[in-house]
Each structure stands twice: as structure tokens, then as C-alpha cells.
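Feature request, filed as a ticket because there's no other form

It would be nice if the structure record came with a short human-readable summary line next to the C-alpha cells. Right now we just get the raw output. Example of a typical job, pasted below so the devs can see what we mean:
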Amino acid sequence: MKKIILASASPRRKELLEKAGVAFDIIPGTGEEIITASVPEEIVKELSCRKAYSVAEKMEEGMIIIGADTIVSYDGCVLGKPRDGEDAVKTLLKLQGNTHQVYTGVTVLRKEQGEYHPFTFAERTDVTFYPVSEEEIREYVKSGEPMDKAGSYGIQGTFGIYVKSICGDYNNVVGLPVARLLYEMKKQGIDLKG
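Raw output as currently delivered:
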């Protein structure tokens, strides 16, 4: 079996891969998240590729590295992780009562015969929230839960109760479109589950 590395420290991505039955080790991707692209799908593909390549020097022949990155986009603007509590409140006030997009880019990097072989894709999911009061948003932000999450919320957490609808892959919003990852790898002749 090929050795698989997840180039992410995200506990959510770790949990999703474990639930899918993938055996892997974790080496968090390093380096600055410098964005040169302007389209959300291209941004996440670029960032996931950087994460995968940032651990490539530790790669042995036959290994597979999975890099992933997630962003939230609303009204043409990318909403990253909040700088502080007030930034989280502002972000959630924008998103409440509206539909936004969650993009995750995934790069699978293989090393065979001394050469790197990357495969990259992006997944999009539309999420719509019910209207949420500023008081409810501030109460949520006080919990600290949104502080390490793109778009200032975790759909699997407390703020998930305000979701009106999802169009697309729920796991993509959590941080890894694991079903598509497994499907795309099967098309490449790679069974990540063994």
C-alpha cells in the first residue's frame, strides 16, 4: 500500500479522511498563503498545491500527499479566517439571510520515478443561511468557535443551526470533499482506501 500524507493540521480534514477509511499520516503544510489568482476556484487550487508541495521534500518514492484549502466567497469577495471577534461578527452579518459559496481546492501529489505528478481540482458548495440577529451572532462569536474558520463559521458546529439550505457537498463545507477525492483518485487508478 502506498503511504499517504495529509498536508494539513485541520482536525476536520483528519476526521473526514478517517471516516472514509483512508490510512494516512499528517505533516502540516508550511509556508505563507500567498494568493496570485483572483477567481475563488483558482485560489483554492493554488493554495492546495502550495500545501502539497511544501511537504514534498519529505516525500519518498511512491508516496501520495494530499493538500487542501477552503475559502468562503460572498458577493465576489473572498472571506478568510477572521482577524478578531469584530471581524467575525461583520462577516456573519453579511452571510446571514444570504447565499454564499464555499470552495475547497484539493491537490494530490504523487512521486514516481523521481518526478512529481500533481492532480488538482476544486469543489463548490452553495450555502444559504436563515436571517440571524446580531445578538445571536455575537453570542456565537463569544464561543471562539469561528476564529479559525474561513467565513467565520463551522457548519458542523453551533452556527450550523442557521443553515437554510445547501446545494452541493456538505463535507466540502466542513473542509474536504472526500467523496470527490476518492472518485477522482479511482479515475487515476489510485485507491486511497487500500
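Something like this underneath would help us a lot:
The CA atoms of residues 10 and 175 lie 8 Å apart.
The chain has a mean pLDDT of 92.
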